[in-house]
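subagent[fold] <- orchestrator: predict structure for attached chain, return tokens only, no commentary.
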Amino acid sequence: LVSTLSPGDIDMVVKGAIKAVNEFIESSGKDITIKTRLMADTPPVNLDYMNMRAAIYNILQNSVEAIEGRGEIRIETLPSIDQTISIRISDNGIGISPEDLRKIFNPFHSGKFQGSGLGLTISYRIIQDHGGEIDITSKAGLGSTVVIRLRPAERGRPATHAG
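subagent[fold] -> orchestrator:
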């Protein structure tokens, strides 16, 4: 799963994932609005565009599946006190029970009736491969919030490419 990371725009990745998940929403027949609030001049982050887009898409897809009928997903990029960039994705879906929350990143664990339950495990691995962290908080019946924290690319130092 390891790939070469190079400085890139996390907002572009977020927009790509939103575009893809909007197609998923249309095919689901649900009435879901995605609201975005992205930082202005977001510092570049070392990333693999396709992998990171897949990680964010998986999280958004879970939000869509957690919303019954109508709902809202908010996604924002914001600076954190520890100099990292946060991507916060929250939904007003059915939420996750405390028992399920503890096992959420385990392979094949799924609170859903369909699907492999690998989406969040893959997202977790991709974010770890990017040197980032992922955290989920949830309240059953109220929705969930996923926060991804990534370190900005060091300025002035070229990215190293193997090969």
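orchestrator: received. Logging for downstream: The chain has a mean pLDDT of 87. The radius of gyration is 16 Å.
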